[in-house]
Amino acid sequence: MIMANVYDVLKERGFVEQVSDEQSLRTALSRPITCYIGYDPSATSFHAGNLLTIMVLAHMQRHGHRPITLVGGGTGMVGDPSGKTEMRQLLTPEKIQANLEAQKKQFSRYIDYSDGKALMVNNADWLLPLNYITFLRDIGRHFSVNRMLAAEAYRLRMEAGLSFLEFNYQVLQAYDYLHLYRQYGCVLQMGGNDQWGNILAGVELIRRVEGGEAFALTFPLLTTSSGAKMGKTAEGAVWLDAELLSPYGFYQYWINTEDADVERFLKIYTFLPLKKIGELCQAKGADIRAAKEALAFEVTRLTHGEAQAEQAREASRSLFGGGAASDAVPSTTIPATELSSGIPVAELFQRVGLVQTRSEARRLIQQGGAYVNEAQVASVDQVVSQAEVQGGSLLLRAGKKRYHRVVIS
Which CATH number is 246-320 given? Predict the structure, then answer.
């Protein structure tokens, strides 16, 4: 069986926004190549928005290409101004290193690094030892200040103020590409569409310095149909780290996908065949839940493993069908003594994290969206006591789908 060209696969699944030379890249991808994506070390965990880029590298590997995950230990000390209206907070080398170690574990869930099938590199290894004057002479001379200032990333920052430190970022990222081209034969850099100018700068640098051919490919910056940023909720980021967001909470994010987004997200965030995705998404109305369940299960399985995905699915099915809450549902333990005199329901909802503030809890109650053991909370003055405890716990619900179990000890 002849494997499809990975470029066609990426395009069919909705990953391709811009490409520097489509036909030449497609031809290059007819044989194994090395490609890379750079990652910011500003957090200990990636989130659902980052997952799109990781899935691209996984597709590349599955089609016989060698992906490089570049972690920005060097550029992380500068901060990328792309898409930012103000300067990023600079991290210490120690904090960057701690974040890199945590990120490495997450990459390995999706990408196989054994036997050189993929590489992980840290640009601190070649950026930190650079001789500044030599670098300016050999690399900096290839960059036009006028051209750099015309780039959208810099234009957005000019009014607020662009530091000289940040102004260097494009040069450093382009040098990363040149280094990987020289060291590993890397000929394709990919990234979000806000990186288009930076990636093209690397393509041009390789052409000028080495006379080589390299390519740029960017992905769409995803938002949901309602306009929300991908991977963000009212409660915060949808982290891939189970310590920051439980597998159940992660599963719930995906199963609550808006109907209009299900097919698009199945193509991007799972490896299910397109034919299967098409069949799942033929359903409309309430029947689309099967497609949402497939999306939630597959993404959770990739991120947290089969067992956690199964547990999250069963917990979700049980709650959706009016059953009991399982151990997979997020929970908080409260001493029984605290219930003896009762806890104001608004305080309880805030305490377990279903709302951020008491005033938000009161609004939720007034709008009829707060429930204790599936009974609607009738008043903002309601007090939860030992009388509501069932089987050693309470089940709280905010809105239609956000649950939290309170275990009484």
Answer: 1.10.240.10
384 confidence band (pLDDT: 50, 70, 90): confident
Q: Is 213 helix (H, G, I), strand (E, B) or coil?
A: coil
Q: What share of the chain is helix, strand, coil (3-state, %, to 5)?
A: 50, 15, 35
Distances (CA, A) of 252 to 50, 157, 245, 320, 323: 18, 37, 11, 11, 16
How do 402-408 and 331-334 pair as beta strands?
parallel
Q: Where are the domains of the chain?
A: 6-219, 246-320, 331-408
Q: Where are the alpha helices (DSSP H) in 115-187?
A: 124-127, 132-138, 145-150, 152-158, 164-167, 169-184
Superfamily of domain 6-219 in the CATH hierarchy: HUPs (3.40.50.620)
pLDDT tens digits, one per residue of 121-146: 999 899 888 877 677 767 877 776 66
What is the model's pLDDT at position 167? Answer: 66
Which H or E run contains 91? none
Q: What is the mean pLDDT of residues 318-335?
A: 66
**Packing angle, helices 289-304 and 306-320, rounded to 10:** 150
Label the pairing between strands 343-344 and 232-233.
unpaired
Q: Beta-strand (E) ranges in 221-367? A: 232-233, 236-237, 331-334, 343-344
β-bridge pairing 343-344 and 331-334: unpaired
Helix (H, G, I), strand (E, B) or coil at 334: strand
Q: What span, in angstroms and rounded, lies between the C-alpha atoms of 258 and 116?
A: 39
Q: Is residue 378 exposed (0-12), middle (13-18) or buried (19+ Cβ within 10 Å)? A: exposed
Residues 229, 201 contacting (CB under 8 angstroms): no
Structure tokens at 201: 């700068």
Average pLDDT over every residue of 236-255: 90
Q: Mean of the pLDDT values across residues 243-251?
A: 91
Report the CATH architecture of 331-408: Roll (3.10)
**HSE-up of residue 364 (Cα within 13 Å, Cβ side):** 26
Asked whether residue 79 carries a pLDDT value surpassing 70, the answer given is no
Buried/exposed code over 338-357 (b: 16+ C-beta within 10 A; e: otherwise): ebeeebbbbebbbbbebbee
Within 10 angstroms of residue 315's Cβ, the number of other Cβ atoms is 23
Over the stretch 193-240, which tens digit does the pLDDT of each residue have?
A: 988 988 999 999 999 999 999 999 999 988 888 787 787 766 678 999
